[in-house]
Design brief:
Blueprint: E1 4-13, E2 16-17, H1 19-28, E3 34-35, E4 48-49, H2 54-61, H3 71-87, E5 98-103, H4 109-122, H5 131-135, H6 139-148, E6 154-155, H7 163-177, E7 182-189, H8 194-203, E8 226-234, H9 235-240, E9 247-256, H10 266-280, E10 289-291, H11 298-312, E11 320-322, H12 325-328, H13 335-349, E12 351-352, E13 375-376, E14 381-388, E15 392-399
Parallel strand pairs: 5-6, 5-7, 10-11, 10-14
Antiparallel strand pairs: 1-2, 1-8, 1-9, 3-4, 7-8, 9-15, 12-13, 14-15
C-alpha cells in the first residue's frame, strides 16, 4: 500500500471562508454561533446556530445564483477550489488520476424546503423544474468532478454525521491502493432551513442556550453548516510535482454498531478507534490530540468518553481532548471534514484547540477537556472521531510528515 499525504485544504464554515479562518477561530475559541429566526417558525424554541454570514453566502453564490446548484454544491465547490489552489494542482493532475469523495447528509435541503413550501402555498405549477438535480445528495460530488475534470471514481456517502470522515477515509483507501493518484475528499451541508430546523427541534437534542460538550450543565447540540475538502494524494505523486506536504494521512477506521439508531455504542466506537490506530501502525499513546465527536448531548458525551477510556486508558494520560462544535457547530455531513481540518490545524500549530463554554466537570463523565483556551502542546499525531446516527462510526489519524 502506498503512503498518502494531504497537500491542500479548503473550508466554508460559520467561522468564515477558508481553512485558515476555521483553524484560527477554533484556536482562538471564537464561536461562529449567530442568531437564527425563520419566518415559517413562529414558535421557534432554539434561536442560535453556527450559520454562514450573509456576506460570506453572497461571496460564494454570487449576484445571480446558478439555476442548477443548491447552496450545498456552492459550499463544496468553494472549499474544493481553495484546496486545489493550495495543493497547486493544474489541469494535468486531474482526469482519471483523480477521484472525488464528497459526503452529504441531506443534500439540497434549501431547494427541497423551498419547493415544499411553494407546493403547499401555490400548488404544483410554480415549482422549480431543476429541483431534482439540485436536491440529489451526490450533486456536490458531481459538480466538483465537473469543475476540475476529475474522471476517476466519484462517490457521495450519505452516512449522516460520519459522511465527511468516511469520505476522507474512502479517498485514503483509493489513493493507497493505487486506484487513483489523488482524491478531492470531504463533506458538505447546507441544512439551516426552516423545515429541517424544526424537525431537529422536535428531536429535542438542540440546546436553547449554549453548546457545552462534556460539561456538567450541557443540554444539547448546536447545528452548523459548511463544507470541508482535502486534497488526498499519494506521497510519490506529491513529491514528483514538488508539492508542499501538510501532513501524512495514516489511519482510517469505520464500523457499525448494529444496535440503537440514535445512541452510540461505546464498545463499537472503541473498536473503530482501534481500527484506525492499527491502520496507522500506532499504539494509543502515540496520539497527542483527539478531536472528539462531542455533540454536547447527554448520551453522546458519556458514551464517547467511555469509549475513549477503553482505548486510551482510564486517565487518558498524555491525550488532549476537545470538541470544537461550539465554534463551528454540528455540520452533519460536513462535520467530519471540518473537524479533520481542525485536527490538522492543531498538528500544524502544535496547539490543542479548546472546548469553549466548558464550565464544570460532570462526575458522570470525569473528563476535563481542553477548557476554553487553546493549549500549546507537542503534537505528532492526531485523531478525529465521528459517531453518526444510524450507528455508523469513523475515525481518522494524521501524523506530522517528518515523524512518519
Amino acid at each position: 500500500m502506498r503512503r498518502v499525504v494531504i497537500t491542500g485544504m479548503g473550508a466554508v464554515s460559520a467561522c468564515g471562508l477558508g481553512a485558515e479562518a476555521l483553524i484560527s477561530a477554533t484556536q482562538a475559541g471564537k464561536s461562529g454561533a449567530k442568531p437564527v429566526q425563520f419566518e415559517d417558525l413562529p414558535q421557534q424554541r432554539v434561536s442560535t446556530a453556527a450559520r454562514l454570514s450573509k456576506e460570506d453566502i453572497a461571496a460564494i453564490v454570487g449576484p445571480k445564483p446558478h439555476k442548477m446548484r443548491d447552496p450545498v454544491v456552492e459550499y463544496a465547490l468553494h472549499a474544493a477550489r481553495e484546496a486545489v489552489a493550495q495543493a497547486g494542482l493544474g489541469e494535468e493532475h486531474f482526469g482519471e488520476a483523480c477521484g472525488v469523495s464528497i459526503g452529504s447528509g441531506q443534500g439540497g435541503a434549501e431547494t427541497l424546503n423551498t419547493n415544499y413550501l411553494k407546493f403547499g402555498r401555490e400548488g404544483p405549477m410554480r415549482l422549480d423544474p431543476m429541483t431534482v438535480p439540485k436536491i440529489m445528495n451526490n450533486a456536490a460530488a458531481g459538480w466538483v468532478s465537473i469543475e476540475f475534470g476529475a474522471m476517476g471514481p466519484a462517490f457521495c456517502l450519505a452516512t449522516a454525521c460520519s459522511a465527511g470522515s468516511q469520505s476522507i477515509g474512502l479517498g485514503l483507501q483509493m489513493v493507497a491502493s493505487g486506484q487513483v493518484e489523488r482524491c478531492l475528499a470531504g463533506g458538505a451541508e447546507a441544512c439551516l432551513v426552516s423545515g429541517g430546523f424544526r424537525i431537529w427541534e422536535l428531536l429535542r437534542v438542540m440546546t436553547a442556550t449554549q453548546n457545552r460538550p462534556f460539561s456538567k450543565d450541557r443540554n444539547g447540540m448546536m447545528l452548523g453548516e459548511g463544507a470541508g475538502v482535502l486534497v488526498v494524494e499519494s506521497l510519490d505523486a506529491a513529491q514528483e510535482r514538488g508539492a508542499q506536504i501538510l501532513c501524512e494521512l495514516t489511519g482510517f477506521g469505520t464500523n457499525a454498531d448494529a444496535g440503537d439508531l440514535l445512541r452510540p455504542d461505546p464498545k463499537r466506537a472503541a473498536a473503530c478507534m482501534r481500527m484506525a490506530l492499527k491502520h496507522a501502525g500506532l499504539s494509543p499513546d502515540r496520539i497527542d490530540y483527539l478531536n472528539a465527536h462531542g455533540t454536547g448531548t447527554v448520551a453522546n458525551d458519556i458514551n464517547e468518553v467511555v469509549a475513549l477510556r477503553d482505548v486510551f486508558g482510564e486517565n487518558l494520560e498524555g491525550l488532549e481532548v476537545s470538541s470544537t462544535k461550539p465554534i463551528h457547530g454540528h455540520a452533519l455531513g460536513a462535520a467530519g471534514a471540518l473537524e479533520m481540518i481542525v485536527a490538522i490545524g492543531a498538528l500544524l500549530r502544535q496547539s490543542a484547540p479548546p472546548t469553549i463554554n466548558f464550565s464544570e466537570v460532570d462526575p458522570k463523565i470525569g473528563l476535563k477537556p481542553v477548557p476554553n483556551v487553546a493549549k500549546p502542546v507537542s503534537i505528532s499525531a492526531v485523531m478525529s472521531n465521528s459517531l453518526a446516527f444510524g450507528g455508523i462510526n469513523a475515525s481518522l489519524v494524521a501524523q506530522r510528515y517528518d515523524d512518519c
